Every structure is written in C-alpha cells, then in structure tokens.
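#dry-run=false #mode=assembly
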Amino acid sequence: MSYLDFRASHRFSTGFRLEAEFETDQLVTALCGPSGSGKTTILEMIAGLKQPHQGRIEVGRKVVLDRQRRIMVPPERRRIGFVFQDRRLFPHLTVESNLRFGRRQNGRPGDGIRFDRLVEVLDLGRLLTRYPRNLSGGEQQRVALGRALLIHPEFLLLDEPTAALDEPLRDRILDYIARVIDEWRIPTLIVSHVREAVLRLATRTILLNQGRIVTSESASLL
Amino acid sequence: MLTEPEWNAVLTSLKVATASVALGLPFAIGLGYFLARWRSAGKWIVETAVNLPLVLPPVVTGYLLLLLMGRNGPLGRLLDEFLGWRVVFTWYAAVAAGAIVSFPLMVRTIRVSFRSVDTRLEEAARSLGRSRLSTFYRVSLPLALRGIVAGSVLGFARTLGEFGATIMVAGNIPGQTQTIPTAIYSLVQSPGGWDRSWPLLLVSILLACVTLAASEILERRRERHELS
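#status=ok
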C-alpha cells in the first residue's frame, strides 16, 4: 500500500518552478536535496499550508488535494503531524499546554498515543511546566515532535529535525525519532539536506534538485 | 471636596468611557485583525474611513453624528420608530461619540499588535487540527493581548477627554450628560468659576495617571508571567 502519492506543479512569483512527482510505500522516507530545492514547499503542500497550481496529493488512502476535481482539504482536517524546522512552539503556553494544543480527532481504535506514554518516550516530564523560551534547542525539538504526535497523525512530516543542533544532540534527536516511529509505526517523511543524518532512519530516499526529483530509490542502494 | 453635580460628572465620564470602549472593542479587534492580515485592493478605503475621526475636528464628528442620530436623521428615526429610543442629548449619545472618536486609536494599536503575531504560529495551529476561528481565539488573540489592552486604555483615556463631539450630540446637562470636560467648561464660564474648577482638574489628572498606571501594571504582570 502506498503511504503517500504526491504530484504537484507550481510556479512561484520568483520564477522558481516546482515540478515533482513521487510515491512511497516505505514507513520512513527521506526527502533530500540542497537548500532551495523545494523540500519544505513539498511538505507545506502535503500539510495543506500551500496550494500548488496543479496537482494531486493522496495520503494514506485519503485524497487531500486534487486540483482537477477541486478537492482541497483544509490543513486542520488532514491529520498530518508537521514538525517545523523552526519548531513554532506557542510562546504563551507552557510545554504541557503546547503538547495538548492539538485537536485530537477520532484516533484509530486501540492505536492511540497516550499523553503519559508520549511524555515518557520523549523524556518531557521535567519540562511540562516550563515555557518554550526557557528550553534548549533539543528540548524544543522534542516538544514540537510530541505536539505533532498528540493529534494522532496518519502521517508525519519532519522538516530538518536536526537543523541547528550540534553533533551529539543531533544523534540524540534521531534516537528519539527512531523510538517514536518504532513505537507508533506512523508513516513519516523526513526532510534533510544532510543525507547521512536520515539514512539510518529512512528506507527510501528521494533526491530533489531545483524543484525536480533527481532520483528516487531505496536507501540501501545509495 | 466635590459638589454633587461634579461627582455626577465624574461618574458620567467613567460610565461613558467604559461603555464606549466596551461598545467599540469587539469591532476594533475584528477590524484590527482584518487590516493586519488581509491584503486587498480596497483596503485603503476601509482604513481611511476608520481613521477619519482621528483627523476630523471632534465638533464636526459630533455634527455628523447629530445629523445621523437626530430626530430626523436616518438612524435617529429608525431607533425612535422601532425601539422608541431618542438617543440625542442622552448619555447614550455621549457613548456613541466616545466610541467613534476613540475607535481609530483602538484599531491602530490593535492592528499593530496583530501584525506582530507570527503567522507561522497560526499555520502551526491549523496543522494541529484547529480551525481558523479556534486558531484566532487560542493563538492570535492571546498573543495580541498586550496591544488590545493598550488600545483599550488609550480609547478609555481618549473618551474621558472627549469634549467637542460629546457637547454636540449629548449636550451638557448636569446630572445627565455632563462629563468632566464639559463640567469644567461650564464652571469656567460662570462667575468665580476659575477658583472652583480645580477639584475637577485634579480628578482629571488623577484619572489619567491611574489609567496609565493600570496599563503599565497589566503589562508588567504579563511579562513576568511569560518569563516565569
């Protein structure tokens, strides 16, 4: 079964053209490429924060966008967890309120992500009463990850989860992500410009350059 | 220290200023958000209309209000016929005048505070399953709260000082529509009034200080809360 079927074409006012088409049936897929190649834009289109001029996006078995059939599911009804590169924690809310912010939509039966278990897996217990501005980069990243998971997403988007973190911390965040994927088996698309960083998680890598897919193959072949 | 009519003027002023802010605030929040977020060709028309009372002499604003709400004015006739309300020369008219002159100040302050709210946080809220409305209440509004409080304080202070438009539509009836500024004006016009107007002047200055201090304290408390 295909977890994600993405087809989009979009012309930006800057002249940049995104023309991408890919499909993945792997639990963890990496989307790599130099900065400015359109990786984040693809994530935003999957999440519904940007609408391509033309295209069709299917997540799980749900069509979330089809320009031809005029289907455009708004972001709040896509159930796609998005962990932003800049984290975007709500500064006026405590860590706990940030985590509980998402609206839980009917989770798959017997498959829920419980708050307590999530706090345990991501080691967030000590942080719950703090405010985002008092957290380190790695802690913020874990809270952002936890917040996205608590909406019981059907698909998870991670945008440069290790950006702005130094080497040892980078490995630890990847450990946390691996733990999460292991525990809840959520299909995930990870964007990274450091291919090595995500190789250990992803079983398939898609290479993007200047808005176009260059290669799309199993990670083991690279 | 204050005579009874003077006390009444102080109470009327506070009543009118509070009601004016309460009346204008929901609209100011809505419009402030709209002006901060939407970019459309006709936006400048709305912006000009909102800001007009800021540059118009209050007496002219009052005159226009009188035309609108007077017994033969379109709004005045409607209110009279359907609700039996005669607004002109009651304290309601003073509220209308206060709401209109303070409105641009409130909208401007609130718009700036909404503009400083990071739209990326609003996007994050949407991706977390929150509708536009829910995102507004849970993210945009709380993050703009400081500006909304500041705008309300500014509007309150502006209405306390309102003279021109108020005297046009509400008059200067002691015990009914007389406010601090119109009472001071009356006192000064009467013989020996110069010597008797200082208590109201002091009250006026005191109210201004209290209002400013209140907004300062609110802001500090919020800051401390966010840093804790």
